[in-house]
Inverse folding.
C-alpha cells in the first residue's frame, strides 16, 4: 500500500435523482462538490499526503477545485475512459486499489458508495454525503474528511478502532452471486426499472437491511423503528411489507410504521412480518416476479416466478474510516503538534 497516495471519487450525478420531484430532497450541485473537494485537498496536503489520483468526469470537479489553489500535491486523473455511468466509479476504485491507495474519499450517496465498494477491495473509505438518501455516507466538512483521510493514508493513525469493517448484503439469484448492497435490498411490485429511485411504500414487497440503526432515512429507517432494542449490535433485519393476506380478515387492523422514506416524505408503511438477521444468515425472498432495488435504486428484474432470490448478511463489507477516532488518535500522537521558532 502506498502510504502517501489518496484517491478521490466525486460522482457528478449524485444528489440529482427523481426524489427532488416526489419528495423534498436538496439538489446537490457540482459547484458545491467543487468547494468540498477544494477543502479536502487542503486537508490532505496539511497531513503530508504526496499524491492524489482521482476519477475524471465531464464536469472536471477535481480539476476545478485545484485550479484555485497553490498546491504542492502530485495531483493527476486516473488514466481511464469516462462513460458517464456508475461503471466509472467502480473502475476508478479498482484502479486506485491497484495503485495501492492508502485511502479513498468518495462524494456521493448510498448508490455511489455501493459501486465504489465493489471495486475498492480493502482500501479504507471516507464517504462524504452528497446524495439523496444517505445511510452509508455522512455529512462531514470536507476539511475534516481530508485531514482524517490523510492521517490514515500516511500511517499517522492506525488500528481497528480507526478503520472499521461495515457489513454488506450479498444478493444471489438462483444460487449465483448477482450483486451486493451496503444498506438495503428491496423488492418492488413495479414491473420495470424506470426512474430507478424507490420511494413509494405501495410498491414495496420485502426489505432486507444490513444493520439496525436509529435516525436513518429511506427503507433503512424501518429497522430502527421496528427493532429499537437492536441498536449497536451486528444484526440486520428482514421486513415483509403489506398486510398478511394469508391470515387477513375483514376489517382487520394492520400494523403500520410511520417512516421517513425520503427527505420530507413521511409515510405509513404496513408491516406484515419482521425478524432480525444474524451475521451470515440468509433471507430467502418470495419466488415471484419483481424488481430489485439496491441501496435505494432499482437495479435488476426477476422475470420468472421460479427464480430464487437470496440475500445474505455478510460481515466482510468495506472498511470505513471513523473520522472522530482518526482525529482523536492523530491529536494523541502529536500529528497536529509542531514546534516553531518565533523570531522577535
Amino acid at each position: 500500500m502506498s502510504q502517501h497516495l489518496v484517491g478521490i471519487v466525486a460522482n457528478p450525478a449524485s444528489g440529482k435523482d427523481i426524489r427532488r420531484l416526489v419528495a423534498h430532497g436538496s439538489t446537490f450541485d457540482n459547484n458545491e462538490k467543487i468547494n468540498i473537494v477544494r477543502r479536502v485537498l487542503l486537508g490532505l496536503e496539511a497531513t503530508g499526503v504526496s499524491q492524489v489520483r482521482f476519477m475524471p468526469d465531464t464536469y472536471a470537479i477535481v480539476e476545478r477545485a485545484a485550479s484555485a489553489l497553490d498546491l504542492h500535491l502530485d495531483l493527476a486523473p486516473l488514466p481511464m475512459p469516462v462513460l458517464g455511468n456508475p461503471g466509472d466509479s467502480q473502475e476508478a476504485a479498482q484502479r486506485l486499489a491497484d495503485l495501492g491507495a492508502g485511502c479513498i474519499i468518495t462524494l456521493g450517496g448510498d448508490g455511489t458508495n455501493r459501486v465504489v465498494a465493489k471495486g475498492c477491495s480493502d482500501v479504507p473509505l471516507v464517504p462524504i454525503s452528497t446524495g439523496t438518501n444517505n445511510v452509508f455516507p455522512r455529512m462531514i466538512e470536507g476539511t475534516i474528511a481530508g485531514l482524517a483521510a490523510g492521517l490514515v493514508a500516511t500511517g499517522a493513525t492506525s488500528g481497528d478502532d480507526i478503520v472499521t469493517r461495515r457489513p454488506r448484503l450479498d444478493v444471489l439469484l438462483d444460487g449465483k452471486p448477482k450483486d451486493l448492497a451496503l444498506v438495503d435490498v428491496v423488492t418492488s411490485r413495479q414491473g420495470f426499472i424506470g426512474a430507478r429511485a424507490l420511494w413509494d411504500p405501495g410498491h414495496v414487497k420485502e426489505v432486507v437491511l444490513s444493520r439496525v440503526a436509529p435516525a436513518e432515512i429511506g427503507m433503512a429507517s424501518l429497522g430502527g423503528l421496528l427493532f429499537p432494542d437492536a441498536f449497536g449490535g451486528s444484526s440486520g433485519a428482514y421486513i415483509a411489507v403489506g398486510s398478511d393476506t394469508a391470515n387477513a380478515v375483514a376489517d382487520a387492523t394492520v400494523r403500520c410504521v410511520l417512516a421517513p422514506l425520503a427527505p420530507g416524505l413521511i409515510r405509513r408503511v404496513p408491516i406484515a412480518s419482521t425478524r432480525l438477521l444474524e451475521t451470515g444468515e440468509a433471507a430467502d425472498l418470495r419466488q415471484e416476479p419483481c424488481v430489485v432495488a439496491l441501496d435505494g435504486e432499482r437495479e435488476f428484474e426477476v422475470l420468472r416466478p421460479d427464480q430464487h432470490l437470496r440475500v445474505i448478511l455478510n460481515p466482510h463489507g468495506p472498511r470505513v474510516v471513523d473520522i472522530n477516532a482518526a482525529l482523536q488518535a492523530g491529536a494523541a500522537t502529536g500529528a497536529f503538534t509542531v514546534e516553531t521558532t518565533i523570531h522577535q
